[in-house]
Amino acid sequence: MPLKTPEAPASRAIAESNELYRLLFENGFDGLFLTAPDGSILDANPAACRILGRTREEIIAAGRSGVLDTSNPHLAEMVAERERAGRTYGELTAKRKDGTIFPVEISSVVFRNPEGELRTCIIMRDISQRRAAEKERELLIGQLQEALAKVRTLSGLLPICAACRKIRDKQGVWHSLETYIRDHTEAEFSHGICPECRERLYPENS
Questions:
Q1: Residue 146: which H helix or E strand, with range?
Q2: Per the confidence metrics, is the pTM higher than 0.70?
Q3: Which of 15, 74, 116, 122 is the most buried (most CB within 10 A)?
Q4: What pLDDT, on a 0 to 100 scale, did the predictor assign at position 135?
Q5: For 117-167, what is each residue's pLDDT tens digit?
């Protein structure tokens, strides 16, 4: 019976490295693509399939031009930057299987595989929720700014008549207290009678 040859340390290290790569590739939260510089997609992880709403086979068949929005002018810029610098990072728009266009964050780097062939790695992150939150925040800020622009407040010393309570404006015209406040603030008035005045004016009903 032949004896088993002990596994070489180098072979064991390679096997462990390949297993680690597989685990990271299959369990990563972001979409991972193994591609070629010409735009071909060689592999895609489960997260990429979830983000794009496509199967691995559909992604590979579609290629880069099928999963990214080619009308986005930043795509050509990022491809050119990767060719020049060997890596790139930015925001693009991607296409789901149903045709939905959505924003993604992309990072990509060029490398050579063990056979010396040029390959590219693309990491894709769906930022739809982030963009929606930013849009909602911008809308809220705009509403608050609009509201603040409409708010008018009274400040400084107001010349008021000690007898009739009229207020003198900057042009020297006297206005009733109600008119002045209504014209210089967002306040409105509703009328009633306080208990003291009711007792003074209508003692029979007290």
A1: helix 128-150
A2: no
A3: 122
A4: 92
A5: 999 999 999 999 999 999 999 998 888 888 777 666 666 777 888 888 888
Burial class of residue 6 (count of CB atoms within 10 Å of its CB; 0-12, 13-18, 19+): exposed
* Domain CATH number, residue 80: 3.30.450.20
Structural tokens at position 24: 């990271």
pLDDT single digits (tens) 13-30: 766 766 777 777 788 889
Measured in degrees and rounded to the nearest 5, phi and psi for residue 81 equal -65, -40
Containing structural domain, residue 65: 12-128
Indicate whether 173 belongs to any domain: yes
Are 33 and 70 within one domain? yes
Torsion of CA 166, 167, 172, 175, to 10 degrees: -60
